[in-house]
């Protein structure tokens, strides 16, 4: 592998015209992530601000209106219940944060996925309330216990000092104020981290450049983000990574488990960027458990049993003759002509969906992707609900799409299936806004 140790990662020339002064949020907003992430984090920041300013006022009011002597069963056991009321906004914000984690637009997706569709909403509602109540009790009891322990410790060190419940609560609210302030600072950093990561994944060269430094052993990338929304890479971004790997003497690895179906030689040939290693899987086994990798000769020779001190690659499904037989049969069907035909069908699906949403004025749904991989991007404040409506309405019409919002065509799909899919989309475009 060629190296250029005299160069810094910041000197890598990718040929990109990316503007380093462009705001980090720009690319994220273009891809629709702004409504999913920044909306939620903005809410948390605002709630934390209100909470931070309201806590001292609540403590002062309690100190003046609740002068009961510290101690007794009630004070030790249930005293946390009074300050718990003030924890409501913060716990609510934490619950909202937990519901925003899946970027696929689902609402408490892991809970809903374990039950029939009709139970999705009730489970989400119950999980949200349990999460919020858990946050209230844990934060309130923690602050109360800390304040109580501190008060008892002071009383032991200085006999005669007797704290009232109100004073203990004042200490508890002081701890709460500190926590709220830390939460405020933390959410701002979290927001930046999420935005930077998403931007980096969206092929922002200038956002990725600072992450590269000597000592990195490998750079791993999907030429198209599959689980991240079916977002294709740009040739400039992949060329930049190739140049970076050469400069840093790192191994460039393409994960083409999903994307290799888009070109007879994988997306690396389409983009004309050669990685050092390529990972393949899934369909190459003809539908059975499979996975393989290959690449540069000097790397692969290390796995050659005929060499001294060779590396051993063990695996549960290694040497599965049945999988290899089925995989070979499948590869014989995957000809360049079939790949081109399938990609053309994918282009028709994307164009058809976008045309129907344009006519139906459903601006919050857009079909993106590459070839036979179609991503459904739902944006706007109702994006999460639109995804649910779209998924279940398509099921009603006997059309199954990915729960995260994607469509992947296979060799059995023909024109008639595309027409069936687009007819279903046409029927539900007018219905979707009214069901949100």
TrEMBL record:
<dbReference type="InterPro" id="IPR005814">
    <property type="entry name" value="Aminotrans_3"/>
</dbReference>
<keyword id="KW-0808">Transferase</keyword>
<keyword id="KW-1133">Transmembrane helix</keyword>
<feature type="transmembrane region" description="Helical">
    <location>
        <begin position="72"/>
        <end position="94"/>
    </location>
</feature>
<keyword id="KW-0663">Pyridoxal phosphate</keyword>
<comment type="similarity">
    <text>Belongs to the class-III pyridoxal-phosphate-dependent aminotransferase family.</text>
</comment>
<feature type="region of interest" description="Disordered">
    <location>
        <begin position="1"/>
        <end position="23"/>
    </location>
</feature>
<dbReference type="GO" id="GO:0008483">
    <property type="term" value="F:transaminase activity"/>
</dbReference>
<dbReference type="GO" id="GO:0030170">
    <property type="term" value="F:pyridoxal phosphate binding"/>
</dbReference>
<dbReference type="Pfam" id="PF00202">
    <property type="entry name" value="Aminotran_3"/>
</dbReference>
<feature type="transmembrane region" description="Helical">
    <location>
        <begin position="126"/>
        <end position="146"/>
    </location>
</feature>
<dbReference type="InterPro" id="IPR015422">
    <property type="entry name" value="PyrdxlP-dep_Trfase_small"/>
</dbReference>
<protein>
    <submittedName>
        <fullName>PLP-dependent transferase</fullName>
    </submittedName>
</protein>
<keyword id="KW-0812">Transmembrane</keyword>
<dbReference type="GO" id="GO:0022857">
    <property type="term" value="F:transmembrane transporter activity"/>
</dbReference>
<dbReference type="GO" id="GO:0016020">
    <property type="term" value="C:membrane"/>
</dbReference>
<dbReference type="InterPro" id="IPR015421">
    <property type="entry name" value="PyrdxlP-dep_Trfase_major"/>
</dbReference>
<feature type="transmembrane region" description="Helical">
    <location>
        <begin position="44"/>
        <end position="66"/>
    </location>
</feature>
<keyword id="KW-0472">Membrane</keyword>
<dbReference type="InterPro" id="IPR015424">
    <property type="entry name" value="PyrdxlP-dep_Trfase"/>
</dbReference>
